[in-house]
Amino acid sequence: MNRPATPLQALQSRRSFLQAGFLTLGGLSLTDLLRLRAASAAPHRATPDTSVILIWLQGGPSHMETYDLKPNAPLEYRGEFNPIHTNVPGMDICEHLPLHAKVADRFTLIRSISHGFANHAGGAGRFLSGRDPLRPLDPLSQFPTIGPIVSRMREHVNNGLPNYIGNQPRVYGGGSAYLGESALPFVVGADPNLDNFQVPNITMDDKLKDRLDDRMTLLASFDQMRRDIDQNGSLKSIDKFNSKALNMLTSDKARNAFDMSQESAATREKYGRHKWGQRALLARRLVEAGCSFVTMQMQNPGVQGCAGNWDIHAVNGHLYDDLRGRLPIFDRAVSALVEDIYDRGLDEKVMVIVSGEFGRTPRINPQKGTRSKIMQPGRDHWPGAMSVLVSGGGMKMGQVIGSTTANGAYAKDNKLDPNDLLATIYRFLGIDQHHAFLDHSGRPMPILPKGSPIPELS
């Protein structure tokens, strides 16, 4: 015979039912609930008002044709381009980056980062996650890369904007892995250079706002019941995340941040009226408005004869013809971003990183082009040496960190790991690199298994 429930059992059953009802209405999985419980239970340290812009050059730009030319190397290494002086003595860069040269005192070049993965997916995963990929050819990283980590570590920040924004869901070889899809960026895929550029899903019409107000009033009527059942803070945490989404929909902050028409014609022209330039400008607008991490991928420059990304093997294109079309666009976009960050007083708040997943082979490898059908120069994948540009972040600028061998093949002085750069970025964002997440098997995985902030940037 079934015994009647005791008052305590009845109360527990009612609480379980109510909690399940709230979860059903909110569309939350058990994983979401556990994450929200952890978020509500774990006290957050004060988060600095800092942001990072990652300009990602998928395919791997040639360090030998951009930031680390070797004019004294044999012809089959040094290539066709010549170095020019910058406004920083001793920092020479490619002749096709003259606007960079004028603002070199506002950035630092790191020439001695290297790793061991020479394919695109594995190289990007290694560079951006700080861990050796388990499946180097997998386009999805098996470990969370920096953007999703920032997204998760700063999910408590509520400033009316997503805290991670990108122009694609993930970089090739990147991803959120065991942090889940919700750690991926808010995607702005449209070309911000277009006159009709707009971002969907950041505003709602007045009728929807009225209906939302009605629902919020209804939810408010459950306050006492919520206080009765919410002993562990889960619902409070749910409120926080719902509030974050509602703030974005009902405030003007996100809409204004994405409104490129608020920029003057002169400013837009300074960045370049092309996709890359306006992506760089949009990135500045987003971090200025409070976004924590913005990834803008500079692919498909829209110049006839240029390959889609920076992977200029000879079979993909003529290395020098491609770069003669690509570099002036890149030069204008990046130099304008660097200059704008400083001119607007954002250099203490914003760090800019410009990099791809690796460099290119020191020796030029001519092959017959797939389209041209003629022999032409190119360089292949090379993780033994690469160059990274860093600007802002309240750090020491106008310097070159590290060097490569005489033919540009390997890091020589001050050899650095991608993890050292990641550790520098995490420190700037106030993120503990030793913080651990649980992977799919339940093992605690620290954000970085190794790496220390680069002291020359301090």
From TrEMBL:
<dbReference type="Pfam" id="PF07394">
    <property type="entry name" value="DUF1501"/>
</dbReference>
<dbReference type="InterPro" id="IPR017850">
    <property type="entry name" value="Alkaline_phosphatase_core_sf"/>
</dbReference>
<dbReference type="InterPro" id="IPR006311">
    <property type="entry name" value="TAT_signal"/>
</dbReference>
<protein>
    <recommendedName>
        <fullName>DUF1501 domain-containing protein</fullName>
    </recommendedName>
</protein>
<dbReference type="InterPro" id="IPR010869">
    <property type="entry name" value="DUF1501"/>
</dbReference>
